[in-house]
Design brief:
The complex is a heterodimer of chains A (357) and B (518). Chain A is 67% helix and 0% strand. Chain A has one domain: ABC transporter involved in vitamin B12 uptake, BtuC. Chain A is built from 13 helices and no strands. Chain A starts with 44 loop residues before the first helix and ends with a helix. With 357 residues, chain A is an all-alpha fold. Chain B is of the alpha/beta class and 518 residues long. Chain B folds into three domains: 155 residues, Rossmann fold (3-Layer(aba) Sandwich); 73 residues, no CATH class; 239 residues, 3-Layer(aba) Sandwich (Rossmann fold). Chain B contains 18 helices and 22 strands. In chain B, the strands form five sheets. Chain B has a six-stranded mixed sheet, with helices on both faces. The longest helix of chain B has 16 residues. The radius of gyration of chain B is 24 Å and the shape is globular. Chain B starts with 13 loop residues before the first strand and ends with a helix. Classes of the chains: A mainly alpha (357), B alpha/beta (518). The interface between A and B is large, with 47 and 77 residues.
């Protein structure tokens, strides 16, 4: 993996002793080799196809499998609707997370941000009598602020993203408790707010699904089709080269943290709107699935690159497995184990393609 | 060096026969056969892409040949891993420094080897340092084994890597471009050390683009071209011309390494850039220089003289402590590369691998990165049009002679020279008035160098100013209209006209009269 070029790479090492650049999680911890080989060199075509479309193929396969196993219940409109609805809020978080990951950064505060986002909106409404649209805007504002603080501390003040966002997560959890007194908030939630998670006014499809679709399309266009998106990937690929090409690396890093924090608040709002209540510490369980989806997604379509379509397919895949296994009445313990194994297997398949090229 | 033993009789320590390696679409090595005997220094030369690196990787156990065999002490051997190669006494000093930056010299020397222990459990640090000190002494390297390697100079770091070979009791040491970014003094010391190793019976394979060194330091030279060994000759029978001819495969060697820059020869025009009292501790102490339209200003100096540091300040990467930068008569503050680009200053960084390109991305995407805004399909939509980007990058591929299947291939698959041209392409597309080239030809083959010189000449003819930094003094003397010599962060000489010569530059690099008489 470390040396991947056909002939002598650049000379003239200026005395950097194997400089490490920012983490690129999906391509493995060894960024030091620099040269990433062309995709799929030295591997038969079918490996490429499996590796690139693997998660999509797997998604279709599990849908068919569960459809055969539970023909009466699994492939019903109601059930598919339910799966999509359940996947919608986590999908928005995972899509948001794709941006800092594409920049070569990561954010461990997003789980707590989900919790604080939903809790702050509900607390403002139920405890302080704020009109729900204003409460939603204020909650989004908190997300913006948190993202800015994370981004500025990391990009401009040189904090490590690991420590900064881990600490921020702890802080956000504390702030959430301050807002809610660690109580479950449920009384006096207006229907308008609940509709954000429950309405199916558009074609009978739940509003969360529409929202997730909208976010996915917008973020896809943003990352893949705009100048800013191209610069984001350039920073993730080689931050020094990007800076030397005039890219404002620091600003983009801040932007990445802002985007994921706002996405986390949206996720938190949808969850509390759907349930009409806010439980203490409800956000943290969203952290790991978001990473699982983003990493699984980075093994799809464009192996080695965090990308929105991959993330979306991965969220659906993980959601379908969860629901399907529940329908087969498999114990939660086994569902967890199966999901973990599937994740590792998917990563291995995607690495196959790039190994030994 | 003349005391060197001619190839000794007996079994070669390594012999390769009919090595072949293909990657899909690329024939990296077609037919490579050669051998090296104990005590022999073998030069291995060829253009980038000739297959040298792949052969080295096969010897290092990093790449398995498709066909052919490797014989160690006359026995066919499979080198399944770099550890296997090391155990058999084959050590490779790769071009990139493979050191643990925060580790001590001693730890790096004994990396991968068992450390001496106390009670079979705890590392015996004093014994380790003692053993490392003994190895370093053999190389004449005066550094504290306890020192951290990231505080060492590039030359010292390379010596640490050679020390590692000794620690492994290497019988074959393969060096890939060991003298890149070393000063002349350091180079001659390195070559001396290699000769001592050879005299002690170690076989040395010396891979370099610097033909003078190869001619001066080796007993025999193997020339590779297009994946095959095309010549295997005793060095004493060779001249630079015949070597260049062998490398390029041209019957007539048009003195490719003797640098030619065809220039219209117009006098320099108006002043573009002026630097006054530029200081940035600890590297720069009051640098003054000016750069005019249509001029190539060479910047000479030993490693550590402040050349790269100056280039970085001029491109807004680092901020100066004091001093002014004046562009077209206006004082400017360059807070970032973006700010420098607005003043139409461009930099080709020395550290191409880390600062040049995103090697996983295509030629197209790298070329258009500084100019994305200009490639919109629709003027009001911030969406780059791939077709427009492709058109621009294809033009550059043609103009700079970048060898690639198309503009969609990842830059990481290109040779070093072609990667450098992609960096250049960015700036030609972007446009600039002041081009700073920091060691643009380091690690680039003969043809690639000629292409770079051609572009430098073209830019100057177009009225651009070029600040050309190079450790290759014949090149610097040939390319530059004027040369400024830096020493310890200060301008110590400015050479013009007939003063621009290798010996004059060298004289001033080493401290003028004092050093010359010493």
């Amino acid at each position: 993996m470390a040396t991947g070029q056909t002939d002598a790479p650049a000379g003239g090492d200026p005395g950097l002793v194997g400089a490490g650049t920012a983490a690129r999680p999906a391509t493995g911890p060894k960024g030091a080799g620099g040269g990433v080989r062309p995709p799929g060199r030295g591997r038969p075509g079918w490996v490429q196809v499996v590796a690139r479309g693997g998660v999509l193929v797997a998604l279709l396969l599990v849908i068919v499998a569960f459809g055969i196993a539970r023909p009466d219940t699994f492939l019903t409109t109601n059930n598919l609707n339910a799966i999509l609805q359940q996947a919608a809020a986590p999908a928005i978080l995972a899509i948001g997370l794709t941006v800092p990951l594409a920049l070569g950064e990561f954010d461990l505060s997003i789980g707590a941000m989900v919790g604080l986002g939903g809790a702050s909106a509900l607390a403002l409404i139920t405890l302080h009598g704020v009109a729900w649209p204003v409460a939603v805007l204020l909650a989004l504002g908190i997300g913006l602020l948190v993202g800015l603080v994370n981004g500025v501390f990391i990009a401009y003040l040189g904090a490590s993203s690991f420590v900064q966002t881990l600490a921020m997560g702890v802080i956000l959890l504390g702030v959430e408790y301050l807002f809610t007194n660690q109580q479950t908030l449920f009384s006096g939630v207006p229907q308008g707010y609940k509709d954000l998670g429950q309405s199916d006014a558009i074609l009978g499809v739940n509003i969360q699904i529409w929202l997730a679709l909208l976010v996915a399309v917008l973020m896809y266009l943003f990352l893949e089709q705009t100048e800013t998106g191209r610069r984001i990937y350039a920073v993730g690929g080689n931050p020094d080269a990007a800076r030397f090409a005039g890219v404002s690396v620091k600003r983009l890093r801040v932007l990445g943290f802002v985007i994921v924090a706002v996405a986390a608040v949206i996720t938190g709002i949808l969850i509390t709107a759907q349930g009409g209540s806010s439980q203490p510490n409800a956000g943290v369980p969203f952290l790991l699935p978001a990473y699982a989806a983003a990493f699984l997604g980075s093994a799809t379509f464009r192996p080695g690159t965090f990308n929105v379509p991959g993330t979306v397919v991965a969220v659906l895949f993980l959601g379908v497995i969860q629901t399907g296994l529940q329908m087969l009445q498999i114990a939660t313990a086994w569902i967890n184990i199966i999901q973990g194994v599937v994740l590792i297997a998917a990563m291995l398949i995607s690495r196959l393609e790039r190994k030994h090229a | 060096m003349s005391t060197a033993a001619a190839p000794r009789a007996g079994v070669p320590v390594i012999e390769v026969r009919g090595l072949r390696k293909t990657y899909p679409g690329v024939l990296a090595v077609d037919d490579a056969s050669f051998s090296v005997a104990p005590g022999e220094v073998l030069g291995l030369v060829g253009k980038n892409g000739a297959g040298k690196s792949t052969v080295i990787k096969m010897l290092a156990g990093l790449v398995t040949p498709d066909e052919g065999e490797i014989l160690v002490d006359g026995e066919p051997t499979v080198l399944a891993s770099s550890h296997a190669a090391s155990v058999l006494g084959i050590s490779v000093v790769h071009q990139e420094l493979a050191l643990v930056p925060r580790g001590s010299v001693a730890e790096n020397v004994f990396l991968g080897l068992p450390y001496p222990r106390r009670a079979g459990l705890f590392v015996d640090w004093s014994a380790l340092h003692r053993k490392a000190g003994a190895v370093l002494a053999r190389l004449g390297l005066e550094v504290d084994p306890r020192a951290s390697v990231d505080g060492l100079s590039v030359a010292q770091q390379r010596m640490v890597m050679i020390a590692r070979c000794l620690a492994w009791d290497a019988r074959v040491v393969v060096l890939d471009e060991p003298t890149a970014s070393l000063t002349d003094d350091e180079i001659s010391h390195l070559l001396e050390v290699l000769r001592q190793l050879a005299d002690a019976g170690v076989a040395i394979v010396y891979v370099s683009h610097r033909l003078e060194e190869v001619l001066g330091a080796t007993d025999r030279v193997v020339v590779m071209r297009d994946g095959s060994v095309v010549a295997d000759l005793v060095t004493a029978t060779l001249t630079k011309q015949t070597l260049v001819a062998g490398i390029t495969g041209e019957a007539k060697a048009d003195e490719s390494q003797t640098v030619h820059v065809d220039r219209a020869g117009r006098p320099p025009g108006a002043e573009l850039l002026r630097v006054t009292g530029l200081t940035r501790a600890p590297a720069l102490h009051g640098v003054d220089l000016t750069l005019r339209e249509g001029e190539v200003l060479g910047l000479a100096g030993l490693v550590g003289a402040g050349r790269t540091e100056l280039a970085r300040v001029l491109f807004g990467v680092d901020a100066p402590d004091s001093g002014t930068i004046t562009v077209r008569g206006k004082d400017v503050v360059l807070r970032s590369p973006r700010a420098a680009m607005k003043e139409r200053i461009a930099l080709l960084p020395e550290d191409r691998r880390h600062q040049g390109n995103d090697t996983a991305r295509s030629i197209r995407e790298n070329t258009s990165l500084p100019t994305l805004r200009r490639h919109r399909g629709v003027s009001w939509l911030p969406r780059p049009s791939a077709a427009r980007e492709r058109a621009v990058s294809e033009e550059m591929v043609g103009r700079l002679g970048i060898k690639a299947r198309d503009t969609e291939v990842a830059v990481g698959t290109l040779s070093g020279g072609n990667q450098q041209k992609v960096v250049l392409a960015k700036w030609l597309v972007h446009g600039a008035d002041v081009f700073v080239f920091d060691e643009p030809t380091a690690g680039i083959d003969v043809e690639g160098k000629a292409d770079v010189y051609g572009i430098v000449g073209e830019l100057a003819d177009q009225g651009k100013a070029v600040l050309f930094i190079s450790s290759d003094l014949p090149e610097l003397a040939a390319v530059s209209d004027r040369v400024v010599v830096l020493r310890e962060g200060r301008v110590v000489a400015e050479l013009t006209g007939s003063q621009v010569s290798e010996s004059q530059i060298l004289h001033h690099c080493y401290g003028g009269a004092d050093a010359a008489s010493a």
